[in-house]
Batch of 2 targets.
Target 1
Amino acid sequence: MPEGDTIHRSASAMRTALAGKPTLRFDAPRLVGPSPRAGRIIETVESHGKHLTVEWDDGLVLDTHMRMSGSWHLYRAGGRWRRPYTQMRAAIEVSDWVAVCFNAPSVETYRRADKRRHPGMGRLGPDLCKADTDLGAVVNLLLTYPDPTARLGEVLLDQRVMCGVGNVYRCEVLWSTELSPYAKVGTISEHDAIRVVNTAATMLRANLHHAKRVVAAGQKGGLAVYGRNGQRCARCGETVECRRMGEYNRVLYWCPGCQTHLDPKLERSSDDTPMDPHPAAQRWLADLPWNRDAS
């Protein structure tokens, strides 16, 4: 499952192998837009969250959106691919390397001058993988999210707010900050927003240069909650749970024992008042099974 750090590493490797070299061959069976012409020089390879772009010297830009399934591989010329040709979505060949994109749901080209017309790139938020990103601007985007009732666990995957945060980092950032994934984004304070953004940026940048993702030091596999459904939380000992959330039904992992900050259910229960002060009503409430067990 690619995230911002994985795509950043792919872009770095491809930049070293392709930049400054003329294109010998380009193939993209499902490409939307014009194809790069043979002989054109590859100028840049960049990552933008879950997007990886390749730009040629005539201003043509290839944009591949990885989403949950896409990935780029780099092979020596003539090397055997690790995946079948049927999964290829784009292939760029230079004199000594072949870069191959597999299973990317979106493969499009556009002209640099028309970048704002591109439906995905025109709306992307700041990229947390980049050291010069203005984190304050990301905080403002979080605090001014158009739908204040949206759940924080869903907003963190919105690439219009911040690029690079995928499902793994979504779960780990929320655990690290002890925020409930069900918190309404409109209820978070500026302090909460700063913690979320700084934590996400720190995690992503710490994993830019090595393939094994480690975001929780000392934890098995380097992860505190992601993929640990049914195991005990290292912080509070409660059982980690998982549930599908959001438009794309992504699996959320979280600890209900310690990720309680701004949890709407807890806030409602704290506002509850006795249903009826009459002694008979109080006795009836005390006899309920859950109240008997608590006494």
Target 2
Amino acid sequence: MSTPKFCAGPVGRRTFLEVGGLSVLGLGMSDFLKMQAQAKAAGGDMGDKSVIFIWLPGGLPHMETYDMKPEAPAEYRGDFRPIKTNVKGIEVCELLPMHAKIADKFAIIRSIHHEFADHGGAHKRMMTGRAPKTPTGTVNDSPAVSSIVKKMLSGKKKSNLEMPVCVAEVDAGRAGLDTFAMGPAYLGPSQTPFMVTGDPSDSDFKVQNIGVKKEMEGRLDDRLAMLKGMDKFRRDIDKSGRMEAMDTFNAQAMDMLMSENVRQAFDLSQEPTAVRERYGMHRYGQRGLLARRLVEAGSRFVTMVWENLDDKPKDAVYNWDCHAVNCHIFNDLKWRLPFYDQALSALIEDLYQRGLDEKVMLVVGSDFGHTPKITTRRGTSTGVMQPGRDHWPKAMSVLVSGGGMPMGQVIGATNDKGEHPVERVMTPNDLWATVYQHLGIDYNHYLKDLSGLPRQILPYGKPIRELMPS
């Protein structure tokens, strides 16, 4: 077999024109709201609980972070060593010292696994809770969890009806739903998250389609009056009530567009400088802070993609895909993990300090783990032989925090070389069943696909019992 020159990681099947958050679908705000309203939400009393989902594309290397094997042979254990945390028996990588101080506020799941070793199949498997029809490609044949959450919770919020139910924040150029398998499949485009692109640590970061300056409100009112006049003759002959409904959708769009609450939720300048600096003035940190602001304002499922960082060294890779052809895994992580450690520990501490730990469940995951055994290849960028790890869906680590759940624990275990689970063997479905239960969504509920056939939200899986509130 030939050695790959580079593993590009998940990419979209088409290039999307970025003109605001809704442009990924070619929709205006009123079209988006109209389609959203066409599908009735199912389910009972959802309360106001929410989820922050931190996605690490390329695969978090479990052997260098949350499932270290210091007693394994050198070709397995790698260069780093574990350190003790503030919870007896829990250890993390030495490059995560801020994690070590707050281990009582998170839980590590070490025994989730699946069977898809390609980024495409792994993204679909993780994002949907279903085995995809094809092992490659990121075009969903089942709805992503975020789409199901939006379908089930739209109209069920008890606070701030102006806030989008589901939000996803990604790098510019990565906003295609196919990039990370976040497509809605048979639920249709109305059930996609509100996409936000760009680097929130940039001084000129802004969200298009959100917020209108005061001096612009008069112009918008004038434009609405003009449109109303132009549509009058159609209303006179319209017997279906569609034009009246469109008035409602336009009104909702304008409410969201001109909402001071929505504008402020996305405005990181509202935060004290000390808070922003605690998270870190980089993409990971400011996305974490933005996630907290959005759930606090009323959004229910916020996805933040922690992928690229500025000033990448030559022997590092843009995401977490630590093949030897992509990067020198140990040098990459010496550079990357301090940013990750700062941002994630700040988010966890902030959720607890602000009393959001009962309401908000934080989930940190990726497409898969990486091979327990280290490989050595010639780096595409460096041209020299360097160590790395390849794709490995048979074992992975997931971190969770908050949600009113028991923290300060490790759930499951892999064997002595980190190759596969040996205790509490689980799949992504068990994780999503836990998430759905937290949100008050019946994961046994059925939704109709495009042919009208009922499809269960999760075909199998149970909430992780160790995480159930007492």
